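Late entry, evening session. Most of the bench is empty. Finally got around to the prediction I had been postponing all week. Sequence below, unchanged from the version circulated by S.P.
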Amino acid sequence: MTNIPAIYQGKLNTLDQIKVSPLSRAYTFSDSIYEVIPYFLGKPLCYKEHFDRMIQSSHLMSLDVDFDSVTKDIKELAATLNNQDGYVYYQISRGVDMVRSHIYQDDLETERFGYAMPASFPSSPISAMLCDDDRWGRCNIKSTSLLGNILAMNKAKSLGCQEVVMHKDGFMTEAGASNVFYFDSAGSVRTSSLSENILPGITRSILIEALKDTPYSVKEGSCSVADFNDSPCIWLTSSTKGILPLTTLIGTEYKFEENFHGYLDIAELFNSAMQSHLSVSE
């Protein structure tokens, strides 16, 4: 971990040298937001969309952020990837308290932290577990408050799964770190409509746009988990997963049809859209 480029309050260093106060509100209250921007051969995927979502999250949390400094930080980190695949993780907290307090001071200095990590992104199908959605009610804010996700995903790990698909009262919300799409028994592509319970995923929007005006145009709305029993293919979307099908979904009768032509067509349309987005400079 010694050579991972990292930045704190505008100063570039290595991750092992970054020192953060235990009174950072990111640490004591999860009073912070984050973004993960993927890079392919040094090119960002949907940089503007990620940046705009970070701005939106900051507004929803009443964070006063100098986004010119954020831009500078991210560009410095991205430059260290040197035409590699990887990602930039970037986090903004409300600041560091003098003494831990639920009510924050109005004059806190915003705390900025990030790092750049070379990485390969998964492409093989994974398994998941169906579970209740026990997270807080404002998942449209990309907050670091992820305890509900963590508890669910680690329970799934104990069952040999790499993800969870969550629901409220029998209606799908999203996965632990992804959005969810599936084919229903009528052959329609479905996903949950956006709400305060669902993060507006960047890859989600790429896929929906890519499928518009095709036979696979996405139907957004309320999605019953009972649909999974008859689905030939359920898949996830995220910045680091791209699109990734599920082999099994524990808690349902779902059976993955590996060569289902509909999903193969969608994967091709998505990959083409990805290349188009990568060809656009940040």
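Two things to note before I forget:
The chain has six helices and 14 strands.
Residues 166 and 174 are 6 Å apart (CA to CA).
Will write this up properly tomorrow.
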